[in-house]
């Protein structure tokens, strides 16, 4: 889980990149800048890592419920690939992704109970397969063979995506944070937790945004990244309040309900409908 250690401080208040949001997205963006460039990075958050959606989420990295025709398909597919690459990197370094990320490649199931559901599931499997995602349709008997605890009746079935994965968000954040903190001794990384962002600071000469104002500090950055999750929309509206900028960030909270089964006590598999 989140280490709970004191945030990494820095004497400087000027960085190449300032990232607002210390969830899994904000921290992985920081990691990418730190490992892939010579840029310095500051991460600022109103609380601590895993205090928002990251901590509440279940770490599902799956494609079975995605529609290849959707506008976010390529983004979703790329995200899936990047997480798999991270797990492989950890394995190549002689570590176990299960220990580092809570990584499990158990696949996922999308199940239905009616003939109409079965038609939809067959169509989904066809769409996923055509888009390059491994998927197969399971009849009632085939589903029962894989998951004896699930009964969908004689008319039901399931779409099975064997490459879908799950990670433990708290473990993943702890690992990423450890990597980020390894760059602190050379002055390239700092954390400003429990510091809500109160505004953006404009340059008096160019008029461009040059800093993030928090409750305690003014953090200057050549680039500012807002990665505050479902709070990004309200945060951006607050930051641009009173300016001539019209912004409509299409990000908002939502609640998803899922059932989680532990058949045979050996693995977790997501069941959705």
TrEMBL record:
GO terms for cellular component: cytoplasm. The keyword Nuclease does not apply. It holds the Pfam family DAO. InterPro entries: FAD-dep_OxRdtase, FAD/NAD-bd_sf. One of its GO terms (molecular function) is oxidoreductase activity. Signal peptide: none annotated. Residues 16-263 form the FAD dependent oxidoreductase domain. Keywords: Oxidoreductase. Required for the assembly of the mitochondrial membrane respiratory chain NADH dehydrogenase (Complex I). Involved in mid-late stages of complex I assembly. This is FAD-dependent oxidoreductase domain-containing protein 1. It comes from Gossypium armourianum.
